[in-house]
Amino acid sequence: MALPKANRLKYRKDFQAVFREGIRRNGSYLTLRALKPLCSRKPSLDTATQTTPAIDSVNLASTRIGISISTKVSKRAVVRNRIKRQITSALYNLLPKLSPGWRLVFIVKPTAAESKCVSPQFLQELEQLLAQAEVFDGNS
């Protein structure tokens, strides 16, 4: 089950911004990089933000998520794609609980392929990482 298009992090500049400015939380199978919404990161200026609320409301409309899995995890694309599908289906279940506007990147560690990790383990670790980063609705 794929993530909706509105919830996908697609562009290189978005990934770079998350890696440059975002917070990091580590788990045994995944690493989470999370970038807070613009309105909660920086205080607004009186005159400069009068034109940006429309842009901010577009950015806050949905949390965008990307998954990064390198060939270090597995040389076989079949294995990498299976892990990515399992993470995506777990994230699909968690999507309604997430606060709007976040940009999230999940980096898969090689231990995920070595230990034959399954979907319930990914779901548990995703919930743990998102709770640590305070991404769940009502935490931020």
Order of helices and strands: HEEHHEHEHH
Order the strands across the largest sheet as they lie in space. Answer: 1-2-4-3
SS field, number of helical segments: 6
Which bin fits the share of residues in helices? 40-55%
Percentage of residues in strands: 15-25%
Query: Could you list the spans in which at least 5 consecutive residues all have pLDDT below 50?
Result: 44-59
Shape: globular
Largest sheet: 4 strands, mixed
> Structural class of the secondary structure composition?
alpha+beta
Mean pLDDT metric: 84
**Rounded Rg:** 16 Å
Distance between the termini: 28 Å
Q: How many β-strand stretches? A: 4
Please tag this protein with its features:
four-stranded mixed beta sheet; globular; 6 helices; alpha+beta; 15% strand; 140 residues
Could you walk me through the main structural features you see in this protein, from its secondary elements to its overall organization?
There is one protein chain. The chain is 41% helix and 15% strand. It contains six helices and four strands; from the N terminus they run H-E-E-H-H-E-H-E-H-H. The protein is α+β, with helices and mostly antiparallel strands and 140 residues long. It has a four-stranded mixed sheet, with helices on both faces. The model is unreliable at 44-59 (pLDDT under 50).
Write a compact overview of the structure shown.
The chain is α+β, with helices and mostly antiparallel strands and 140 residues long. The chain has helices at 12-21, 38-41, 53-59, 77-94, 111-114, 119-132; strands at residues 23-26, 30-35, 64-68, 103-108. The chain contains six helices and four strands; from the N terminus they run H-E-E-H-H-E-H-E-H-H.
